[in-house]
């Protein structure tokens, strides 16, 4: 029984799909990666998959649907493509883990709400900034109600591809929404900055939170540090640059204490360069989500037997 | 030299120096004075553009959409402009600003990242706006590189692209070379936006005009980020003397500066110690007040923070790195103090290279 695994496939053979492939091969856990499917027969990702002994196809979603044993499908294509994929994956009973901004299924942030959605057939990973900052907003809001949360994600220009650049507003809307519905802030705001410095900077995030009323700073600090340790289990390069800082600021709600958390995310460097922590946290979170789903499927299988 | 079009941005760049406390009354008074003095375009927005109201940059006392509506109501001839920085403001705020009366949209990106502005230009053009592209921190890249980025903005629908010296770091020949490169590469107009951190706000603007700039920016009394901008009333006087006054009432602008803006200013922006460092280190002018606040809280010389931010090639909008860098400098200072107690005193003293506040600035 213990050797049983859930078969998984990756859709999309670009940077994200390829990095995720390395992560799944590096730490397979309860999943077995059986297919990388793209649409460009000459893509580097497909060539690398073949070299590593993973089946590769340029037939996209059709290649996945041909194989009924595949239960978990990671979609690292585009929002537009995922809308089409989501329908077909759902119809054939696969679990879709969506790394695009399409958001057909509920948002998930592994240490916060993943277990609430284990029966969903499609889950969405929000944005890189969301995966990095929502856990920290949640860490504050679980000990004291948060009136307002604001995050600033700064990423290396080189790590922001054309999809991000052409849809930069989506990052802002989606991340802000995630701060509210999953982070637990009454109001959320997100800012993204692309920094062209050479050598490229590591992904940096600043999280500001304004608690509703009085709170115990030590409790907030402990909660934040516990959350960082939890995220580090699946994103090893996730770390605070400093313990949370508390100071008083003028806000629309009067002079209020503000919690500021400075965070850095270094990528594992599986396929993408280490500075691209923003991409690494997406693939690392996707692997984590897949692993928890796979364990859940295996436990159900045991019960049925 | 042609008579340039002048945009007054007291009510946008000045928002930084005012710590975003402009009121409807301020807007009404300043717009009325500028309008009567013949200023054709008046920019009104939070200093960091639409949706700039935040912990990162400072909350607006009055929502900027209300200030925009007030400006539109007060202006009889002048057109009202707003600023938008993709990554901060979105198409939602753009649409709301148009509903409240914005006629000219200025879209600003870091000078290397023009391609994040495409959807905003397209939407603004679809809504019938005049559009201006803003290449911020233009001192960080050479003229030919900027020309390529400007050409992207032109291809998205910009009616004019500005060389923006956000750090006030350029010398006159830097400004002229960049404007010249854009003039050679674009069919649309070219503008120049100065900061006075090295005392060259007016000088650089005149150099840009000589190089062919079609549009320039000013603020009454120079009220703007860092050491402020080129003063509108000074520009008017200089343009008039050069014989290229585009229809500005020089005396009325002096009065607007003296009687409308000066009385409400919290301080006169000036190239003082910390502002000169902004220009010298080449960092975003709005870092000034934030670096002073954090420096004061942590007992660090703001110049050490600003120089380090320059070394790290920070860009427009990275105010959160001020605290980050300051905390690192504090840690370094603590470590070097510990080091002092452990090391031979003479050697340690001899090897210390510090500025007041104790941080290494190399």
Write the layout of secondary structure elements.
The complex is a heterodimer of chains A (305) and B (362).
Chain A: E1 6-11, H1 15-26, E2 31-37, H2 44-51, E3 56-57, H3 61-65, E4 70-75, H4 79-91, E5 95-98, H5 110-113, E6 122-124, H6 128-141, E7 146-156, H7 162-166, H8 168-181, E8 185-195, E9 203-211, H9 217-232, E10 238-240, E11 245-251, E12 254-265, H10 277-304
Helix pairs in contact in A: 1-2, 1-10, 6-8, 6-9, 6-10
Chain B: E1 5-8, H1 14-17, H2 24-36, E2 41-43, H3 64-74, E3 79-84, H4 91-99, E4 104-110, H5 118-126, E5 130-136, H6 143-156, E6 160-164, H7 172-185, E7 189-193, H8 201-210, E8 215-218, H9 232-241, H10 250-261, H11 273-281, H12 287-298, H13 302-311, H14 320-342, H15 345-351
Parallel strand pairs in B: 1-2, 1-8, 2-3, 3-4, 4-5, 5-6, 6-7, 7-8
Please provide a written account of the structure.
The complex is a heterodimer of chains A (305) and B (362). Chain A has helices spanning 15-26, 44-51, 61-65, 79-91, 110-113, 128-141, 162-166, 168-181, 217-232, 277-304; strands spanning 6-11, 31-37, 56-57, 70-75, 95-98, 122-124, 146-156, 185-195, 203-211, 238-240, 245-251, 254-265. Chain A is an alpha/beta fold and 305 residues long. Chain A has a six-stranded parallel β-sheet, with helices on both faces. In chain A, strands 7, 8, 9, 10, 11 and 12 form a six-stranded mixed β-sheet that branches. Chain A is globular. The mean pLDDT of chain A is 96. Chain B has two domains: 5-264, TIM Barrel, CATH 3.20.20; 286-337, Helicase, Ruva Protein, domain 3, CATH 1.10.8. Helix content of chain B is 46%, strand content 11%. In chain B, helix 4 (91-99) links the parallel strand 3 and strand 4 (104-110). The chains are: A alpha/beta (305), B alpha/beta (362). At the A-B interface, strand 7, helix 7, helix 8, strand 8 and strand 9 of A face helix 14 of B.
């Amino acid at each position: 029984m213990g050797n049983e695994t859930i078969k998984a496939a990756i859709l999309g053979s670009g940077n994200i799909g390829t990095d995720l492939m390395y992560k799944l091969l590096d730490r397979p856990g309860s999943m077995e990666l059986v297919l990388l499917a793209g649409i460009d027969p000459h893509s580097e990702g497909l060539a690398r998959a073949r070299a590593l002994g993973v089946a590769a196809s340029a037939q996209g979603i059709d290649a996945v649907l041909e194989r009924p044993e595949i239960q978990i499908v990671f979609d690292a294509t585009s929002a537009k493509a995922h809308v089409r994929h989501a329908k077909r994956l759902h119809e054939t009973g696969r679990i879709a883990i969506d790394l695009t901004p399409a958001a057909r299924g509920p948002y998930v942030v592994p240490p916060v709400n993943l277990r609430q959605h284990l029966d969903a057939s499609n889950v969405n990973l929000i944005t890189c900034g969301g995966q990095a900052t929502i856990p920290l907003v949640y860490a504050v809001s679980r000990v004291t109600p948060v009136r307002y949360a604001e995050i600033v994600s700064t990423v290396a220009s080189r790590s922001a591809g054309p999809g991000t650049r052409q849809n930069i507003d989506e990052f802002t809307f989606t991340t802000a929404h995630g701060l509210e519905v999953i982070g637990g802030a009454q109001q959320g705001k997100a800012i993204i900055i692309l920094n062209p410095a050479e050598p490229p900077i590591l992904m940096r995030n600043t999280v500001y939170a304004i608690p509703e009323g009085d709170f115990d700073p030590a409790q907030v600090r402990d909660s934040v540090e516990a959350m960082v340790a939890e995220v580090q289990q699946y994103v090893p390069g996730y770390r605070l640059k400093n313990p949370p800082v508390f100071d008083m600021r003028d806000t629309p709600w009067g002079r209020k204490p503000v919690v500021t958390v400075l965070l850095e995310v270094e990528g594992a460097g599986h396929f993408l360069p280490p500075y691209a922590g923003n991409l690494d946290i997406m693939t690392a979170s996707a692997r984590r989500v897949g692993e928890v789903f796979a364990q859940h499927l295996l436990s159900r299988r045991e019960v049925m037997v | 030299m042609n008579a340039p079009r002048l945009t007054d941005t007291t009510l946008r760049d000045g928002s930084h120096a005012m710590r975003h406390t402009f009121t409807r009354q301020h807007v009404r008074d300043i717009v009325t004075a500028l309008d009567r003095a013949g200023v054709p375009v008046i920019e009104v927005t939070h200093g960091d553009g639409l949706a700039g109201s935040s912990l990162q940059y400072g909350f607006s006392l009055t929502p900027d959409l209300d200030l925009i509506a007030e400006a539109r109501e007060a202006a009889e001839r002048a057109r009202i402009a707003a600023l938008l920085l993709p990554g901060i403001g979105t198409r939602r705020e753009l649409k709301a600003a148009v509903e409240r009366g914005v006629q000219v949209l200025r879209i600003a990106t870091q000078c290397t990242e023009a391609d994040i502005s495409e959807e905003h230009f397209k939407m603004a053009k679809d809504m019938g706006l005049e559009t201006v592209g803003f290449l911020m921190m233009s001192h960080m890249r050479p003229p030919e590189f900027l020309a390529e980025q400007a050409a992207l903005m032109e291809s998205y629908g910009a009616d004019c692209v500005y060389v923006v010296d956000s750090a006030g770091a350029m010398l006159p020949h830097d400004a002229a070379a960049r404007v010249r490169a854009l003039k050679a590469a674009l069919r649309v107009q070219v503008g120049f936006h100065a900061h006075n951190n090295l005392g060259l706000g007016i000088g650089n603007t005149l150099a840009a005009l000589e190089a062919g700039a079609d549009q320039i920016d000013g603020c009454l009394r120079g009220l703007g980020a860092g050491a402020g901008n080129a003063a509108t009333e000074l520009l008017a006087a200089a343009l008039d003397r050069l014989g290229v006054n585009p229809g500005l009432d020089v005396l009325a602008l002096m009065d607007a500066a003296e009687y409308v803006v000066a009385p409400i200013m919290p301080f006169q922006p000036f190239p003082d110690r910390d502002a000169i460092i902004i220009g010298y280190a080449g960092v975003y002018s709005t870092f000034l007040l934030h670096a002073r606040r954090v420096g004061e809280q942590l007992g660090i010389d703001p110049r050490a923070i600003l120089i380090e931010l320059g070394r790290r090639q920070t860009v427009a909008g990275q105010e959160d790195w001020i605290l980050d860098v300051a905390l690192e400098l504090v840690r370094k200072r603590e470590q070097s103090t510990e080091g002092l107690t452990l090391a031979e005193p003479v050697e340690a003293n001899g090897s210390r290279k510090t500025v007041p506040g104790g941080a290494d600035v190399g």
